[in-house]
Amino acid sequence: VGNSSVLNCSFKGNIALLKWTITPKAGGLCTLVYRADKNKTHRTTCSDNINLIFRADLPPDLEIRQVGLAQEGNYSCDVASAEGNFHTRYHLTVQAPPRLSLSCDEQGSPVCEAAAGKPPAQLSWAPEGSSTAEERCHDNGTVTVLSKFTACSTSVTSVTTCMVSHPAGNWSQSIAC
Predict the structure, then answer these.
(1) Burial class (CB within 10 angstroms; exposed 0-12, middle 13-18, buried 19+) of 59
(2) In this protein, which residues make up the domain named Ig-like (predicted)?
């Protein structure tokens, strides 16, 4: 989420026609068509952050600026050239890093929350102890993971660390409850 992604088509020969067909998980079909003979691009129902990038002596690439969850889905490129027809497919999976928060509940137990991550984050504690975890799914495909740490010892001065593991990165926060 928030980064840019560039997709390209593989083909041989001089490009005559290039067509991107985008089928996102959410929203409608988007097409971008480039005709080399007229040097024209036609687009239908594509969001403003999806465009073709033109560079000298290279075929146009598809750029998705500031990727959002709505751009997740299938991307297919068809090229007609003097050498034949070529087809390239991509499936774009979007990862959203969770927002980490750590607090103490009314009983003095540490509570760690990894909010709105995609895929769900994995939470662990240091020092090791028993914990309970629950997941809440959101309509946009993200998941919030909530974990409560329970220590056998009632030492008030002990510092507890919540560690979050996620494909978008790893984070930790410490607290003394």
Answers:
(1) buried
(2) 60-176
* Six-digit token string for 60: 């146009």
Q: What order of strands is seen across the sheet that includes strand 143-150?
A: 99-104, 110-117, 143-150, 130-137
Structural contact between residues 97 and 168, judged by C-beta atoms closer than 8 angstroms = yes
Per-residue pLDDT tens digits for 109-123: 999 999 999 999 999
Residues of the chain with CATH 2.60.40.10: 5-92, 99-176
pLDDT in tens, 128-165: 888 989 999 999 889 999 999 987 665 545 889 999 99
CATH code for residues 99-176: 2.60.40.10
156 secondary structure, DSSP code = T
Radius of gyration from C-alpha coordinates of the chain: 23
Contact 62, 40 (CB under 8 A): no
> What CATH architecture is 5-92?
Sandwich (2.60)
